[in-house]
Amino acid sequence: MHETIVSEAVNAGGPRPMTARPADSQTTASLPPLSPPRRLLLGAGPGMVDARVYQAMTLPVVSHVDPYFFELTDEVHRMLAAVFGTANRFTVAISGTGTAAMEAAISNFAGPDTPVAVFVSGYFAERMSGIASRQGARVFRLEAPWGEAFDEQRAREFILRTRPRVVAYVQAETSTGVFQPGRAICEAAHAAGALVIADCVTSLGTMPVAVDETGIDIAFSCSQKGLCCPPGLSPITLSSRALEVLRARRTPLRSFYLDLQLLDQYYAGAHRYHHTASATLFYALREGLAVIFEEGIERRWQRHVENHEALVAGLESLGLRMLVAPVSRLSTIHTPLVPAGIDEGALRTRLRDTHGIEIMGGLGPLAGKILRIGLMGAGSRRTNVLRLLECLEEVLRVQGFEPAGSGVLAAERHYARS
Ligand SMILES: *Cc1c(COP(=O)(O)O)cnc(C)c1O
């Protein structure tokens, strides 16, 4: 099986003190070279950055109005559309992290008094609901326990009952590890004349997002998860239906920076200056996407499934239980429950400081109750799965937990079968 090569060296070590402080220009001259710790990033993001991406970021900067820059952005936007699974003409990368794209998606389509229906069963769905409220939208919420997906019938009834103009849901809820299928939501929304926004942040580049097949009108993501880049750009795509609504808007959006009409004119139209988009981040994204196409998008999805299944087999063999039912699991974010008596904060600290591995804890109602382990893009590798299981066993034993069996052996058995 093909595996992406990333820089492997990982130093363990806790936070280190800054050795020098630039008090004046003389001390500035003797500052030591930067040396951030090399972590194995297996949390909820950022994920591991591909070595080719780092290399691309050393290339010379061109300006945001250079013809070369627009050739590059056109190429990047075309590749993004392919990864999103769409023929949409409007697909761009917004300057900013995933939350910028989330805010752009909501603010450009939901203003004061717009009825918005939000499916809430996790932290990022809460954030969408909150951003819609800040816009002054009339927000209707359907809630489910964190860790569960919404069933189709309830979803349809909710949309029928609330008659929204915009429906928002999270396809890949990073706070819980749940994949939410969107077909039924999109069908019901379209029947009601609403546009659908889907947060595809942790599915893009790692799992099928299938924007067109699902019927999503506005899908967004970010650069630092499945696309193996540093944070800083956030892809967004609009269906022709959403683009019509956007272009028909006559009142200027209150946000200048996130106004998709202006970004449309900057990237696709007259290339009119809007802001100084970062050539360096676009180089990075171009390489991150090139790596995806060289591996083959379907092989890449398959690689994520394989490593996901091996990790789950290992976690369960150690005696951990998973929060999410098998049918609803993401193949990128794994959320085992913290065993009774284990201090998960101390566990993660030891994993980071002794083994150089970052994983994350739960948010909101799941704080202290789950771990969040990300296997995304360059991080989704057999060696990482085995290494994590080995280190996890060590940090659990330190706290007196007696594993039911060997996680590493269970994962190896899984690989041997597949
Ligand atoms: C990471 C993430 C975001 C965006 O977060 P940023 O920190 O702004 O990049 C949004 N939604 C989900 C589901 C995420 O996982």
How would you sum up this structure, described in words?
The chain is of the alpha/beta class. It folds into 2 domains: 243 residues, Type I PLP-dependent aspartate aminotransferase-like (Major domain) (Aspartate Aminotransferase, domain 2), CATH 3.40.640.10; 122 residues, Aspartate Aminotransferase, domain 1 (Alpha-Beta Complex), CATH 3.90.1150.10. The chain is 41% helix and 13% strand. It is built from 15 helices and 14 strands. Strands 2-10-9-8-5-3-4 form a 7-stranded mixed β-sheet, sandwiched between helices. Strands 11-14-13 form a 3-stranded antiparallel β-sheet, covered by helices on one side. A two-stranded parallel sheet has the order 1-12. Helix 8 links the parallel strand 8 and strand 9. Helix 3 crosses helix 11, helix 11 packs across helix 12 and helix 12 packs parallel to helix 14. The relative contact order is 0.16. It binds pyridoxal-5'-phosphate. The site of pyridoxal-5'-phosphate has 14 residues, from helix 4.
Named once each, the bound ligands are: pyridoxal-5'-phosphate
Q: What Rg, in angstroms, do the CA atoms define?
A: 22 Å
**Helix content bin:** 40-55%
What oligomeric state do the depicted chains represent?
single chain
Order of helices and strands: HEHHEHEHEHEEEHEHEEHHHHEHEEEHH
Q: What percent strand?
A: 5-15%
Low-confidence stretches: 1-15
Overall pLDDT: 94
What structural class is derived from the secondary structure elements?
alpha/beta
Reported by name, the CATH topology of the largest domain is Aspartate Aminotransferase, domain 2
